[in-house]
Amino acid sequence: MISGQSLHMKLGEGEASYGRNSKVQNAQQNRMKPFIENAVTSLMESADDVPSSVVIADLGCSFGPNALGLVSTAVSAISQHCSLRKQAEPEICVLLNDLPSNDFNSVAKSLVALQQNSPSSAALLTGIVPGSFYKRLFTSNSLNLVLSSNSLHWLSQGFIRREMVDSFYVPMHAPSNNELSKIIDDEGSFKISKLQVHELMHGMDKGSITSKKTAIAVTAIFEPIIVQHFTPLRRTYA
Fold this sequence. Notes:
By secondary structure, this protein is α/β, with parallel strands linked by helices. 39% of the residues lie in helices and 11% in strands.
């Protein structure tokens, strides 16, 4: 049985590692940029005065080249917004979240690079928050901007104990746009201002996508789940 705290993408830097097979996720992050920039504009203009500090959280940051994609866009948008309006930039705190088994060593190095290359003239502080975002991670009213990409389809459910094959279960769900809207409305914490559905491969060179690359990309995502579930069975009959 796989614990919800132990799910992660395939680690390392090999051919089938997540770090080398996350172009689809990168393309989806790129499509989110205008939405993040609009959210930053709304945030910065929602108060009478420019906020003195902004706390940004990314839920399900994973690792590799995409780990800082969303927060980097937000930091740049804040800096650009203030520069165009000749306003003092707020202090920024970036918090990256994922499950404890995520490769946070590489994430920490990326955060150092983010601080060193930040376009912001104000302080940029960073932190890591390990844990499931299906449970409480932050104190009340402590976040200004929450981002997430390619993460919310992972469910918090575990496995039903049956025979190993019958019990194998990938804890993810891809809701329709209507179903997603209802889930958000029923939960009540957020209000949808705009919902846009994208074709999965939009913005990518489809001619370069081969069956081998697809298989490797799937391996990068699901191999750790498969290995963890079936390893006890392999040891039993070894």
